[in-house]
Amino acid sequence: MSDDTTPTDRPDRPDRSEAPLHLSRGGVSLVLGRDAGGIPVVLHWGAALGDLDDAALTAIMAARQPGAARSSYDLPRRTGLVPDGTRGFSGTPALAGHRVGGSARAATPSLVDWVVDVADGSLTCTSTDDEAGWEVQVELGLDDAGLLHARTSVTNTADGDLHLASVLTALPVPARAGELLDLTGRWCKERTPQRHPWVQGTHRRDSRRGRTGHDATLLMVAGTPGFTFGRGEVWAVHTAWSGNHTTYAERTPEGECLLGGGELLSPGEVVLAPGETYDAPRLLCSWSGAGLDPLSHRLHAHLRAVTPRARGERPVIANTWEAVYFDQSLDRLTELADVAASVGVERFVLDDGWFLGRRADTAGLGDWTVDPTVWPEGLGPLVDHVTGVGMEFGLWVEPEMVNPDSETARNHPERVLRGHADPPITWRHQQVLDLQDDGAYADLREALLALLDGLDIAYLKWDHNRDLTDATHDGRPAVHGQTLAAYRLLDELRAAHPALEIESCSSGGARVDAEVLARTDRIWPSDTIDPLERQHLQRWTSLLVPPELMGSHVGGPTSHTTGRTHALRYRAATALLHWFGIEWDMTSLDEAGLTELGSWIALHKQVRPLIGTGTLVHPDHPDPALMVTGVVAADRSEAWYVVATVGATDTQHPAPLRVTGLDPGRTYRLTEELPPPPGGADLTDAWSADGAELPGRLLHEVGVALPVLDPEEARVLRVVAVD
């Protein structure tokens, strides 16, 4: 059965000789057949296969029948939709658990009898093992962009409690995908790529931090060796969950190649009573035949669709943190707000330090009332001033945390999340608030609603500054429940204040995943705004996150986190094609400095309509010292590119830039949007490509010369169609 958009509904036919099912949408195909025993098997996930009739699909199934090896199982064996050790799969089983009480005879499920339903462009595959008392359902669906959504659910169908140990979702990929890419990192150096051959065995990336983690891989990517942003066939999966999770790649000696993921469950964390169901995290699965960029485009389309208020233009932000830190006063902040408004800022965010007892990071978390010693009249005068000069007001909060030195911890020590009588070791002088405690949740919710009800707040910067350690609630591991409670709190605040926007910050980029982005409007990819570090980490964060959902700020000349010094041109160009912000004491700037900063804000506003609706591209360049980031309009009538160096170029004259993402049949005019920096490495007066008119095909295939570039220099190129 084949359809280029959605499959035609038809009743399930239990006849095991039925033709495979073919989903095709957005340039991607998924073919699901049944083996000789009726077990669903993914025959193909990848390039669109065109219009296939039942005869062709049946022939594919027959032609892919494996043989039977010596000293192995006597019959040919395939890995089914749910990798199952009871049927001879030697790798990581998708399902694991045990039952306490009841009369079930089997310990783990063996799923043989499957019902496959087809509706709304998706497949729902259901099987029950009555001996084990497990019902398992796997949902598979392609969206309009060709992104595959996969999810596994388990229901306890027997008596006794079912203790789940693992519920994973996995998809097969071809053996030609011989190289793996995943990401690791740390605070202020998130999203560091690592690549290696995909050899036999399991490459597994686990995060047990209670949040996504600075070191968490956003994607597990497998591809043809040597793949780049613009070349090679690639497959990737993302585990959409903000708590403990795993993402893995596995190649077995029998020849199976799988990408998978799911929640990491501690013993006793999820226990299903009879009739209860557990829904594992969604696995987002993306394929591309032309490198990493198209793979990311499918993920970007999904996040743009589900993020609560995705829109084409995001307001320019001024955040007070690196401008004033904890040194807050009405006079100082109104002066900063006036300067911010004068250069074109549209949203003013008061960061950490406004609440009770918060003169440093050692106290106050959990006491979400305005500190009268700093704000004797409350925050109202500041909010009124900010809105009076034409900006929106935003506020920093860290609702899931508590300082031991706080009224909340002193009055309710039982609300500190812990596994033993002694609380866990502190992190940034703080502990975690147990959101599964009804009183803690209710008090926190009311405190946040009181702020939102009483002040004109358009935006919350929602921080989460530590891992969850030794986390237990009522004698059970607590990360699963804590994560769901955080989602619930975000949902309830949005329901009460539908216009509210929320940023997911977690000591920078430690909570970045598709599930939290379904409830928030932007992520803070890192606490460092050093532009050299940002060039790297923004590029790799964009494997998952589109640019308008990624905050990028212009800091002061010397970075707070690294001590490096950069010109404003480099700092601002690094932020230009993302959600632009300022985190700098602008009151220290002279008139020339303010004029230069204002010109960058104006330039960002010129390109901003493309950022939230266009296509992000990363033209490959042979010199690792050069990074190129571009945004191309949806109709390919216009594009902007930032060319930045992250080190000294290998050659005096950098290799030509191949300008990607354009319509090969149209002619474009190139312009450099800013004059070259004074005293730069290139002694000529202008970029030779400035003003050139060339067909898109030549721009992509032949490219244009680059100027001689200094280390840590940036240029901005605009490309506009002239026909």
Uncertain runs with pLDDT below 50, 5 residues or more?
A: 1-16
Helix content: 10-25%
**Major β-sheet annotation:** 10 strands, antiparallel
Straight-line distance between termini: 42 Å
Mean pLDDT: 94
- What's the tally of helices? 13
Share of residues in strands: 25-35%
Number of strands: 37
Helix/strand structural class: alpha+beta
Radius of gyration: 27 Å
Tell me, briefly, the overall form.
Answer: globular
Summarize the structure.
The chain is of the alpha+beta class. The protein has 13 helices and 37 strands.
Task: Tell me what the structure shows.
- The chain contains 13 helices and 37 strands.
- By secondary structure, the protein is of the alpha+beta class.
- The strands form seven sheets. Strands 5, 6, 7, 8, 10, 11, 13, 14, 18 and 19 form a ten-stranded antiparallel beta sheet that branches. Strands 29-28-25-22-21-20-31-30 form an eight-stranded parallel beta sheet.
